[in-house]
Amino acid sequence: MIIWRILLVLTCCNVGLAAEAHHYVFFNRDRERITEPAFLATKALEGAQLKYTWRELEPVKDEYDFSAIRHDLTFLNTKGKKLFIQIQDSSFSPNVTNVPRYLVADARYHGGADKQYNIVGNDEVHAVPEGWVARRWDPNVQERFHKLLFALGQEFDGKVEGINLAETAVGFGESGRLFPKGFAAEVYRDAIITNMKALKKAFPKSVTIQYANFMPGEWLPGSDHGYLRSGYQRARELKAGVGGPDLLPHKPGQMNHCYPMIRDSAGIVPTAIAVQDGNYACKNPQTGQPVTISELLDFATSYLKVDYVFWCTEEPFYSGKLLPLLRMQK
């Protein structure tokens, strides 16, 4: 009887941990989906995380278009849901650039963005372009990005639940062959910290999150130059939130990099994890079996102890497994 009561208490504690997290649906740029009845009817889903690109928010230099954010925020508020903004300055397609056109056209900004590459092994000679990332380390580009953040903050701070910046990982290789103009690992690390500081200053009331998963110039634990670690430390000092894309329980890369740092930040600053396409079908390397939604939820809340979980809409997992589970939470 005593053992049964202990197990019952432990089970209730685990349910409580799961309930403490704030659950959002990551609709990406499919923002029209916030009207879906299944989303609106699931009480455990507090709101939507929606992606807005820098290019669409600043179509002309110093002329901002926040109409899409206003529309989405108003709608969600009328339905008792909240909005979490993701500002996207990078892409995963060689045909898509998410920085404003004036940056690309003006020589002062060196194109505004640089190519990222898919590198197999260490073969940088045969690297293939797979996307673009804003020149976050370029002072001129950074100045423009900070102006955007402050314009957003002036209108939406305290009105949106939160705002997050895209992941820190970039695909430039390690040898220097593919490094863009002015790029260096230390310079990039400092730029990420500067951007976190600007975001926190622009949004003192809403939650701010920097997705910090990997940093160029190191690979933990063997090659640790403190780039990622110092970024997390500075975030705690700034009281800026941290997190990352991809909920992949026990995957070595994440377990050696962002996961322990997110866990160590829990309870000190806001923390978040995003369930991205492919995560629902990943295998647990400890068991060799595909993870369940319950395992993902438990890893996020009991191990990482995050405050926010952003669930993507990949099917058949979203409708068939995630929503039924979350409907049992509240």
H/E series, N to C?
Answer: HEHEHHEHEEHEHEHEHHEHEH
Radius of gyration: 20 Å
**Structural class by sheet pairing and helices:** alpha/beta
Roughly what is the average pLDDT, rounded to an integer? 93
Q: Helix segment count?
A: 12
**Biggest sheet, spatial arrangement of strands:** 1-2-3-6-7-8-9-10
Please bin the fraction of helical residues.
25-40%
The number of strands is: 10
Contiguous uncertain segments of 5+ residues: 1-19
Distance between the termini: 29 Å
State the major sheet: 8 strands, parallel, barrel
State the shape: globular
Strand content: 15-25%
Chart the SSEs and their pairings.
Blueprint: H1 2-20, E1 22-28, H2 37-41, E2 45-53, H3 54-57, H4 67-78, E3 82-88, H5 101-105, E4 113-118, E5 128-134, H6 139-156, E6 162-165, H7 185-202, E7 207-211, H8 227-238, E8 241-245, H9 252-256, H10 258-265, E9 271-275, H11 293-303, E10 308-312, H12 317-326
Parallel strand pairs: 1-2, 1-10, 2-3, 3-6, 6-7, 7-8, 8-9, 9-10
Antiparallel strand pairs: 4-5
Describe the structure.
It is a single chain. An 8-stranded parallel barrel has the order 1-2-3-6-7-8-9-10, surrounded by 5 helices. It has a two-stranded antiparallel sheet with strand order 4-5. The chain has helices at residues 2-20, 37-41, 54-57, 67-78, 101-105, 139-156, 185-202, 227-238, 252-256, 258-265, 293-303, 317-326; strands at residues 22-28, 45-53, 82-88, 113-118, 128-134, 162-165, 207-211, 241-245, 271-275, 308-312. It is of the alpha/beta class. Helix 6 packs parallel to helix 7, helix 7 packs parallel to helix 8 and helix 8 packs parallel to helix 10. Helix content is 38%, strand content 18%. Mean pLDDT is 93; it is low at 1-19.
